[in-house]
Design goal:
The chain is of the alpha+beta class. Helix content is 41%, strand content 16%. The strands form three sheets. Strands 1-2-3-5-4 form a five-stranded antiparallel beta sheet, covered by helices on one side. The chain has a two-stranded antiparallel sheet with strand order 6-9. Helix 6 packs antiparallel against helix 7.
C-alpha cells in the first residue's frame, strides 16, 4: 500500500521497513500494521487536535504533569507553542501509561517507541496469528464471560493500583487474544489521584465492562465492583490481590428534621436580631 505521509519519516530512518495495511481509523488515531525487520508491529498515528472527534478532552487532561511552568503557561494561553506542547502531552500520555501498566502486570500491548506522533507497539494476535478481534466482535459462552470478566476486573484493579484510570474503557477498547482480554487505547488515561473526574470515569469504565459481559452472564449485572474497588482505593486498602465481593451498600443517614428546622429557625432569629441592632445604632 502507499505509505502514509506521517509514517514516511520512520521509513526513511529505517525504523519501519514497510507498511502492510491500515487496521482501523479511530476517533483519535489511525492504526496500521508495519514490518520492522522480521517482526510485524502496530503503528498508531495520532490525529491532530483539529481532526480528533474525542469529546471532553479538558476533563482528561486535568492533573497531567508538564515539563516546566513555561510549557504549562503556554498551554493555558492556547498559543501556537502551547498547542504544540499539548499535543506532545496527549501523545506521550498513552506511552507512559502503557509502560507503567505493563510493569504493573496489566495485559496491554508492549510499547516500543513514540516519535513525531507515531506510537510503535506490539501487534496483538489471536491463536492463529491473525490480528486479534475487538471484544465487541466476540461472542462468549457464559463460562467464558464469567472467567474473562474476572480477568478484566483484576486488570482494572492493577491499573488503579498503578494510579491510572482508563477513562474510556468499553468492549471497543479491548482486544481478545488467545489468552483473554487485552486493554488498548489509553491516550485519555487519567491520574487517579490528580483528576477530579477520576472516580466517575472509573465507575463508568467498570459499568461498561460489566454490561458487556452481562450480556452472556446476566448474574454479573448484579455486581457493583466499581464502587467497591474505588472505596477500597480511597481507604488505602486496595492492592492487586485484595479480595473482592462485587457487593457495595450505600451509606444512608437518617435526617433529624426537628433538629434541622430548629437550626433554620435559630439562624433566622440571629439574622433578624442583627438587623434590629443595626437599625438601633443608626437611630442613635
Amino acid at each position: 500500500m502507499k505509505i502514509p505521509n506521517r509514517l514516511q519519516p520512520l521509513v526513511d530512518d529505517g525504523l519501519i521497513d514497510n507498511v502492510l495495511q491500515r487496521l482501523k481509523s479511530g476517533k483519535e488515531a489511525d492504526v496500521y500494521t508495519v514490518l520492522c525487520g522480521d517482526q510485524i508491529q502496530c503503528a498508531k498515528v495520532y490525529k491532530e487536535a483539529s481532526q480528533r472527534s474525542f469529546k471532553q478532552a479538558v476533563q482528561y487532561q486535568e492533573g497531567r504533569k508538564v515539563r516546566n511552568t513555561r510549557d504549562a503557561r503556554a498551554m493555558q494561553k492556547g498559543s501556537r507553542f502551547g498547542r504544540k506542547q499539548q499535543e506532545e502531552v496527549w501523545h506521550t500520555a498513552e506511552v507512559d501509561a502503557l509502560f507503567r501498566l505493563a510493569n504493573a502486570g496489566v495485559r496491554v500491548p508492549q510499547p516500543y517507541m513514540c516519535l513525531d506522533g507515531v506510537l510503535l507497539m506490539e501487534l496483538v494476535t489471536d491463536a492463529d496469528g491473525d490480528v486479534a478481534p475487538r471484544l465487541s466482535d466476540v461472542a462468549l459462552t457464559e463460562e467464558e464471560a464469567v472467567k474473562d470478566f474476572a480477568t478484566m476486573i483484576r486488570n482494572i484493579v492493577r491499573m488503579l493500583c498503578a494510579g491510572i484510570v482508563h477513562g474510556d474503557l468499553s468492549e471497543f477498547n479491548v482486544l481478545q487474544d488467545a489468552e483473554g482480554p487485552v486493554i488498548i487505547d489509553l491516550p485519555q488515561a487519567v491520574d487517579a489521584a490528580a483528576n477530579n473526574h477520576a472516580q466517575s470515569m472509573f465507575e463508568r469504565d467498570v459499568n461498561n465492562i460489566t454490561e458487556y459481559y452481562g450480556q452472556f452472564a446476566p448474574q454479573l449485572l448484579k455486581t457493583r465492583y466499581g464502587k467497591e474497588i474505588w472505596m477500597l482505593y480511597e481507604d488505602g486498602k486496595l492492592t492487586p490481590e485484595t479480595p473482592l465481593t462485587g457487593l457495595f451498600v450505600e451509606e444512608t443517614h437518617a435526617v433529624d428534621m426537628d433538629s434541622l428546622l430548629d437550626e433554620i429557625i435559630s439562624a433566622e432569629d440571629e439574622y433578624y436580631e442583627r438587623q434590629r441592632a443595626v437599625r438601633e445604632r443608626e437611630e442613635d
